[in-house]
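Handoff note, outgoing to incoming analyst
You'll be picking up this chain. Sequence as last confirmed:
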Amino acid sequence: MEKLIITNCATDCSIYPEWQARFHDSQVLADSIAPAWRAGAAIAHIHAPPDDYKVWESHTRAIRDACGIMIQYGISTQSVEQRRAVMKNRPEMISVAVGAHNLSFVGRDLMMLHPRAELAELMRMCRDHGVKPEFEVCALGDTWMIDDLMQKGLIDLPIMMTIFFGRPGGTWSPPTPAEFMHRINHLPKECYYMTSVTGTTHMQLTTLSVLMGGHVRVGTEDEPYIAPGKFGDNLDHVERIVGVSRLVGREVATDRKSTRLNSSHIPLSRMPSSA
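Most recent structure output, in case you need it:
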């Protein structure tokens, strides 16, 4: 079985009203991610205001000064041009929603469509900049869109995706073992899938993903609670899933070179020096 890849979704949570915003400051963000990287996280999924390009640059630089984690920009709701504008920071990956955004957050609903023409343009942009797309899959039908891009020759293998369970809104899917098994039985063969779960069953499904050869996304965005009534920092979430992986005898991909995602598809990029 391949080594476990852990994505640390080190962002603020928009689902629980009691969760306080913490990661607007670049150094605070980097100080939370670096210990999680040392504990075993290979990828950091981060957010910033869509058109505040200085914050994207500041976040990226602070993280890279603090550790060697691969950076994934959570920019699936941004326009193509907004995404193109941050490519100069050379993230290793960007998130791409292939289905409709239909999510219910605290105080707002998010509803967006992502037509095939937009997705094709994003794939060409990723290829031009040497960036790996990470597909966000909330329902099984989203994989049809990925297959369409594959048939057009716009995706380089292996495919990387995150499969979501329990997110509130119209893209909700039941966070149950039965739903998990149904979903993974229909995924493309050449793919890495990260399992992301919101709700009380998040440990059940992330553990199942470890056992089934999948990978895991954990952290403060998806499910900030480490136990009932107790918030966990990113280090807490990563350490717990590392413990699960070791308990069942699966190694953790603790550096870039231990996963095919890096050696075949993702450049060891660094921020360009400031002019």
